């Protein structure tokens, strides 16, 4: 039973998928969002769900440092609801505070150039979100 992890932003969606046993998260891709047609985002996600045989989804929920949910978090909650309706899969929200910061630090420490970091940062954040979720479930 594979789990998909998503780092949902206004411009991109980072995508990661677990292995079949649900132990490790691997980055899949970064989807460039279509602001005029959100349906294209959902269509690509449905394609990836089918390709990777995904049974549930985890969406990163950006919370403020004090634990409250701000405008970005509210947008992620709406996105998660629409995703659940569209895919008919279980969609859970996962606290993703500082996941992008952690991804940035990992890429900097791996000496990845700024240009390359920009291309993979959201995918890495999705990996961190999903791995945190998988570790907590174990």
TrEMBL record:
First and last residue of the signal peptide: none
Pfam families cross-referenced by the UniProt entry: RuvX
Keyword rRNA-binding assigned: no
GO MF annotations, alphabetized: hydrolase activity
Enzyme Commission number: 3.1.-.-
Main location: cytoplasm
UniProt xrefs under SMART domains: YqgFc
Keyword Cytoplasm: yes
Uppermost EC category: hydrolase
Residues of the YqgF/RNase H-like domain: 1-103
Alphabetical keyword list: Cytoplasm, Hydrolase, Nuclease, Ribosome biogenesis
Subcellular location: Cytoplasm
NCBIfam families referenced in this protein's UniProt entry, alphabetically: RNAse_H_YqgF
Its biological purpose: Could be a nuclease involved in processing of the 5'-end of pre-16S rRNA.
Listed PANTHER family: POLYNUCLEOTIDYL TRANSFERASE, RIBONUCLEASE H-LIKE SUPERFAMILY PROTEIN (PTHR33317)
Family label: Belongs to the YqgF HJR family.
Name of the molecule in the record: Putative pre-16S rRNA nuclease
Organism per entry: Evansella tamaricis
């Amino acid at each position: 039973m594979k789990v998909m992890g998503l780092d949902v932003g206004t411009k991109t969606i980072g995508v990661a998928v677990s292995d079949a046993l649900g132990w490790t998260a691997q980055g899949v891709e970064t989807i460039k969002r279509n602001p005029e047609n959100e349906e294209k985002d959902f269509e690509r996600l449905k394609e990836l769900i089918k390709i990777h045989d995904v049974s549930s989804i985890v969406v990163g929920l950006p919370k403020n440092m004090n634990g409250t949910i701000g405008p970005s978090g509210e947008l992620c909650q709406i996105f998660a609801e629409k995703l659940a309706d569209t895919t008919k899969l279980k969609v859970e929200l996962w606290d993703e505070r500082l996941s992008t910061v952690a991804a940035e630090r990992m890429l900097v420490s791996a000496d990845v150039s700024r240009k390359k970091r920009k291309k993979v940062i959201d995918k890495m954040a999705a990996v961190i979100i999903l791995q945190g979720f998988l570790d907590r479930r174990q």
